[in-house]
C-alpha cells in the first residue's frame, strides 16, 4: 500500500520507562464512571438528540447506575442550554447524581455555562484547551506559555464564577485536550498550573482528565503516559485522574483498562462507544469486562437487550451484531464442536449445581445480561453438528435423542441448512426431525393394537399382540405372541403377505415435557441383514403406543412406499 511513509508516530512516551502497571493482571475495582453520551456522544451524531430524547436518555443513564453524567456543552446551542435548564428546573437530577458540563476556556462561553447552571445543587464544570504540538502549531499558533495561559485564565474564571453561586457545590475538571499528541512533560506542566490555581483538598478534589482525543499509540504507551502523569501531578491525593479514551486505532477499551492499571481513577465514555469518528471508549464493554473478572462493575447491564434498544432509539445508531456482550450474535455458536462443548458444559454445570461459570466458549452466562440460551446461544446452520441439533430438540421440544442416533439427525439437519443456504430456526429443526422420524405411518400403519399377558408362553411374562394394520392401503388383522410387546407386534407383522427383514438393535423411551400434549417419546433402531440401520421415533400420550409408533416409523423408513413389495 502506497503512502505509509507519510506517517510516523506522533505521540510522546515518557523519557524513562513507566511500566509498573504491567505487574497487575486485572482491574480490581470499578472506576468512577462518567457517561459522556449526552455531550461527546451527542456531538458526534448526524442529527444531535432533541431535548426530549436527551431527557429520556439522561433518565435511562441514571437507571443504569451512572452517578456522574456530562449533560452537554450548554454554551453550544439553545437545545443544550434548555436541556440543562429543564433538568434543573424540573428537579430531574437525583441527589446522588452529579451533572457535568463542558466549556472552552473563553470568557463568554464560561459565563454562559455558569448561567445555565443557576440553581443546580452540584455540578462539575469541565474546562479544556488543546495542548498537542499539532494544535499549538497549526490551530492556535501559540507557544507553550501562551497555551498555559489559556488554561490558567480559564481556571481563574471558573473559580471566580463559582464563587458567585455559593448555593451550588461546584467541582472542577481540566482536560489538556489532545493529550496523546502532547509532550508528557508539557502536559504535566499545564495540568499542574491548573491544579495550583484550584488548590484541591480532600473535600474538594479536582479532576484531571487525560483524553486520547485522537488515539495515536498502542495501549501500553497510553498506560505509560498515565503512570507518568500520576507520578508528576501536584497534590495527587486530591486529584482524581480521569481517562477519556477514543477509539481511532480500535483499542480504546484496552487503553482504558491499562490506563486504570496505571493509576486512572475514573473513566469518561459512552454506551457502545458512540462518539467522534470511531467513538469514545465503550463503557458497556469496560464494565462487563470487570463483571467477567468477578468485579462488581457498579453499573447494571442485566437487561442488555433493553440497553441496546434504548440506545438505538435515542441515538439512531446501531449496535453491531458482534459488539462484545451486547451484539445479537455474541453468544451464538453455529459451529458443531462449539455447540457440542457448550451443551456438555451447560449440562455439567447443571448436574453439579455449579454457580461459578466456566462453560467453554462463553465468557459469561448469557442469562446474566438478559439473553436466552434457547434463542441466542445454539443456532443451527450448515456448520452445526449433532450436539447442537440434539440440544435444540431437547431444550425446545423435550426430545432426549439417544446418543447413537444424534449423528444421523445432525447430518440430516445440517444438510437441509446447506441446501437451503440459511439458518434453521428451532421450529424448522423440529419440523425436519418430525417429518423424517416421528410417527411415520406410510406405507405401514398400525391402526389398533391391544396387548395381553401370555403367562403360559415358555413360562415367561410374554405378550400377545392383537393388531389391525394397513399396508399399502390393504387392511389386515393378526394376533401373535412375543417375548415383549414390540416382539409380539413384529411377529404379527410377519404374518402379513409382506417380507420383513430386521432385528431390533436398541430401544429407549422417556416422558416428554409437562407442557407437551404428547407425553412420551420412544426411539427404536432396527437393522436389516445387510447391516443397514433405521431409526424411528414414536410419540403418544401412552408410552406403549409411543413405542409401537417408533417401531412403525423405523419400518416405514426402511420400507419406503415404492420399494415395499410382497
Ligand atoms: C475533543 C472535543 O470533543 S472538544 C469539544 C468539542 N465540542 C464542540 O465544539 C461542540 C460545541 N461547540 C460549539 O458549539 C462551538 O464551538 C462554540 C459555541 C463553543 C464556540 O463557537 P465559535 O466561537 O463560533 O466557534 P469555534 O469553536 O470554532 O471557535 C474557535 C475559536 O476558539 C478557539 N478555541 C477553540 N477551543 C478553545 C478552547 N478550548 N479554549 C479556548 N479557545 C478555544 C479557537 O482557537 C478559535 O479561536 P480564533 O477565533 O482566535 O481562531
Ligand atoms: C473535551 C475533551 C475531554 C474531549 O472530548 C476529548 O479530548 O476527546
UniProtKB/TrEMBL annotation:
Ranges for region Regulatory domain: 440-566
Keywords assigned: Amino-acid biosynthesis, Branched-chain amino acid biosynthesis, Cytoplasm, Leucine biosynthesis, Magnesium, Metal-binding, Transferase
Necessary cofactors: Mg(2+)
Superkingdom classification of source: Bacteria
Compartment(s) where it occurs, according to its Swiss-Prot or TrEMBL record: Cytoplasm
Pathway the protein takes part in: Amino-acid biosynthesis; L-leucine biosynthesis; L-leucine from 3-methyl-2-oxobutanoate: step 1/4
Family annotation (InterPro entries): 2-isopropylmalate_synth_dimer, AIPM/Hcit_synth_CS, Aldolase_TIM, IPM_Synthase, LeuA-like_post-cat, LeuA_allosteric_dom_sf, LeuA_N_DRE-TIM, PYR_CT
GO biological processes: L-leucine biosynthetic process
Catalysed reactions listed for this entry: 3-methyl-2-oxobutanoate + acetyl-CoA + H2O = (2S)-2-isopropylmalate + CoA + H(+)
Top-level EC class: transferase
Ligand binding (Mg(2+)): 40, 244, 246, 280
SMART domains membership: LeuA_dimer (SM00917)
EC number, UniProt record: 2.3.3.13
Gene Ontology CC entries for this record: cytoplasm
Role of this protein: Catalyzes the condensation of the acetyl group of acetyl-CoA with 3-methyl-2-oxobutanoate (2-ketoisovalerate) to form 3-carboxy-3-hydroxy-4-methylpentanoate (2-isopropylmalate).
Protein name, per record: 2-isopropylmalate synthase
Native species: Lentihominibacter faecis
Amino acid at each position: 500500500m502506497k503512502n505509509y511513509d507519510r506517517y510516523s508516530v506522533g505521540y510522546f512516551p515518557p523519557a524513562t520507562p513507566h511500566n509498573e502497571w504491567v505487574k497487575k493482571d486485572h482491574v480490581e475495582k470499578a472506576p468512577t464512571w462518567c457517561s459522556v453520551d449526552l455531550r461527546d456522544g451527542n456531538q458526534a451524531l448526524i442529527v444531535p438528540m432533541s431535548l426530549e430524547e436527551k431527557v429520556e436518555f439522561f433518565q435511562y443513564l441514571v437507571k443504569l447506575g451512572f452517578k456522574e453524567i456530562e449533560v452537554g456543552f450548554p454554551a453550544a446551542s439553545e437545545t443544550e442550554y434548555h436541556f440543562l435548564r429543564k433538568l434543573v428546573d424540573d428537579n430531574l437530577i437525583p441527589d446522588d447524581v452529579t451533572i457535568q458540563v463542558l466549556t472552552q476556556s473563553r470568557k463568554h462561553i464560561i459565563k454562559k455555562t455558569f448561567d445555565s447552571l443557576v440553581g443546580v445543587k452540584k455540578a462539575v464544570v469541565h474546562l479544556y484547551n488543546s495542548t498537542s504540538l499539532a494544535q499549538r502549531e497549526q490551530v492556535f499558533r501559540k507557544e507553550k506559555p501562551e497555551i498555559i495561559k489559556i488554561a490558567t485564565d480559564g481556571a481563574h474564571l471558573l473559580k471566580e464564577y463559582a464563587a458567585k453561586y455559593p448555593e451550588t457545590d461546584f467541582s472542577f475538571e481540566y482536560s489538556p485536550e489532545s493529550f496523546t499528541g502532547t509532550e508528557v512533560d508539557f502536559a504535566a506542566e499545564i495540568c499542574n498550573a491548573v491544579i495550583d490555581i484550584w488548590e484541591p483538598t480532600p473535600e474538594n478534589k479536582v479532576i484531571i482528565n487525560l483524553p486520547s482525543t485522537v488515539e495515536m499509540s498502542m495501549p501500553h504507551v497510553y498506560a505509560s503516559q498515565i503512570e507518568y502523569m500520576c507520578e508528576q501531578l501536584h497534590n495527587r491525593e486530591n486529584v482524581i485522574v480521569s481517562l477519556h479514551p477514543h477509539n481511532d486505532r480500535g483499542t480504546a477499551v484496552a487503553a482504558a483498562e491499562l490506563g486504570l492499571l496505571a493509576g486512572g481513577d475514573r473513566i469518561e465514555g459512552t454506551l457502545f462507544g458512540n462518539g467522534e469518528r470511531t467513538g469514545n471508549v465503550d463503557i458497556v464493554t469496560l464494565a462487563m469486562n470487570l463483571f467477567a473478572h468477578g468485579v462488581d462493575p457498579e453499573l447494571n447491564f442485566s437487561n442488555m437487550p433493553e440497553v441496546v434498544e434504548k440506545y438505538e432509539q435515542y441515538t439512531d445508531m446501531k449496535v453491531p451484531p458482534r459488539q462484545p456482550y451486547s451484539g445479537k450474535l455474541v453468544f451464538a455458536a453455529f459451529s458443531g464442536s462449539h455447540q457440542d462443548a457448550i451443551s456438555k458444559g451447560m449440562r455439567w454445570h447443571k448436574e453439579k449445581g455449579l454457580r461459578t461459570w466456566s462453560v467453554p466458549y462463553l465468557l459469561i452466562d448469557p442469562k446474566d445480561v438478559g439473553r436466552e440460551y434457547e434463542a441466542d446461544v445454539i443456532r443451527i446452520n450448515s456448520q452445526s453438528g449433532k450436539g447442537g441439533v440434539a440440544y435444540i430438540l431437547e431444550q425446545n421440544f423435550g426430545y432426549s435423542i439417544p446418543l447413537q442416533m444424534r449423528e444421523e439427525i445432525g447430518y440430516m439437519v445440517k444438510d437441509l441448512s446447506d441446501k437451503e443456504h440459511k439458518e434453521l430456526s428451532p421450529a424448522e429443526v423440529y419440523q425436519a426431525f418430525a417429518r423424517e422420524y416421528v410417527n411415520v405411518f406410510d406405507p405401514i400403519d398400525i391402526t389398533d393394537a391391544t396387548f395381553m399377558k401370555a403367562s403360559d408362553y415358555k413360562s415367561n411374562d410374554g405378550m400377545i399382540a392383537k393388531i389391525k394394520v394397513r399396508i399399502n392401503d390393504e387392511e389386515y388383522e393378526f394376533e401373535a405372541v412375543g417375548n415383549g410387546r414390540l416382539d409380539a407386534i413384529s411377529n404379527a407383522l410377519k404374518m402379513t403377505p409382506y417380507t420383513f427383514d430386521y432385528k431390533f438393535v436398541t430401544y429407549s423411551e422417556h416422558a416428554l415435557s409437562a407442557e407437551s400434549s404428547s407425553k412420551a417419546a420412544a426411539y427404536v433402531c432396527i437393522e436389516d441383514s445387510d447391516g443397514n440401520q433405521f431409526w424411528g421415533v414414536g410419540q403418544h400420550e401412552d408410552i406403549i403406543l409411543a413405542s409401537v409408533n417408533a417401531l412403525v416409523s423405523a419400518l416405514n423408513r426402511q420400507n419406503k412406499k415404492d420399494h415395499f413389495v410382497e
